Amino acid sequence: MSKVLILDRIQENLRKKFAAFADGFRERLRAVSLELSTVEGPLEEQQRQIESIQTRIPALSEALEDVEAAEAECIAAKVEENDYTVFTCQDLEFELELVVQSIAKKISFIDNQAYIFFLPSAVLFLTEVVTDRVAQHE
Contact at 8 Å (CB) between 22 and 75? Predict the structure, then answer.
């Protein structure tokens, strides 16, 4: 077998390996995005759901490292094109960052809603406390 044929096979295997990692990562990321978009219910339940989703981000970051390693192998073997996937590491990093930002925004939204929800009760409580204290000093 000639060196060129061996190199072609190595490059082809690396293309397939990268595509499998990239496409698998994208599917996991899509599942998290879909789950994020279906968060609903009372604020406490939404918060619990978001926290559960957020715990999956470190595993996604580790999976992205596997994609990056596969990409590095392709670069080292001078693989220039990959017909097995449309994704690049840069695409996947960007998409992961979007998911992380979406989680942060959802957490902020829930926190703001909780603040707005509990603020009138807190104001009423504080008003009653102040009124009681004033009445005690009169």
Answer: no
Rounded distance between C-alpha atoms, residue 98 and residue 110, angstroms: 18
The first and second tokens of residue 36, run together, are 């994020």
CB distance 60 to 28 below 8 Å: yes
Task: Tell me the pTM.
Answer: 0.80
Write down the architecture of domain 3-137 according to CATH: Up-down Bundle (1.20)
Domain boundary assignment for the chain: 3-137
Counting Cα atoms < 13 Å in the Cβ hemisphere of 20 gives: 7
Cα separation, 66 vs 136, in Å, equals 68
Q: Which two tokens stand for residue 113?
A: 């809603």
- The tens place of each residue's pLDDT in the chain, 138 residues long, gives 788 899 999 999 999 999 999 999 999 999 999 999 999 998 889 999 999 999 999 999 999 999 999 999 999 999 989 999 999 999 999 999 999 999 999 988 888 876 665 555 555 555 665 566 666 766
